[in-house]
Specification:
There is one protein chain. With 104 residues, this protein is an alpha+beta fold. The chain has a single domain, classed as Glutaredoxin (3-Layer(aba) Sandwich). The strands form two sheets. A four-stranded mixed β-sheet has the order 2-1-3-4. A two-stranded antiparallel ribbon has the order 5-6. Helix 1 crosses helix 3. The longest helix has 16 residues.
């Protein structure tokens, strides 16, 4: 995973929930990727997302806000599904042994 971006208006209640849940999902997956936040309106418009907040991996939309705030489990599942679809390394074991977690 090259980049993970959260797009939205910082300080908005839904955005802050998305941020907290996304960080929780990354922690549960044992990922040490930096969550980049895109909050400038002009920058947000450049991504041409259908709704905000939105979560992007490698500049591809993974989830967009429509009717509810996704929980940690939903975000985690979306990240893993994206990685499977992109044939990226996916954690297969969540037993806490980071050296054994990734398999192709």
């Amino acid at each position: 995973m090259k980049s993970l971006k959260l797009i939205g208006i910082k300080g908005a209640q839904r955005y802050e929930h998305w941020k907290r849940h996304t960080l929780g999902a990354l922690d549960a997956l044992h990922f040490s990727v930096v969550l980049q936040e895109v909050n400038d309106v002009d920058k947000i418009l450049e991504y041409k997302v259908g709704a905000i907040p939105a979560l992007l991996i490698n500049d591809k939309v993974v989830i967009e806000q429509y009717d509810h705030v996704p929980n940690i489990i939903e975000i985690k599942a979306s990240i893993v599904q994206f990685m499977i679809n992109q044939q990226l390394k996916v954690p297969r074991s969540f037993n806490g042994r980071k050296d054994k977690a990734f398999k192709v």
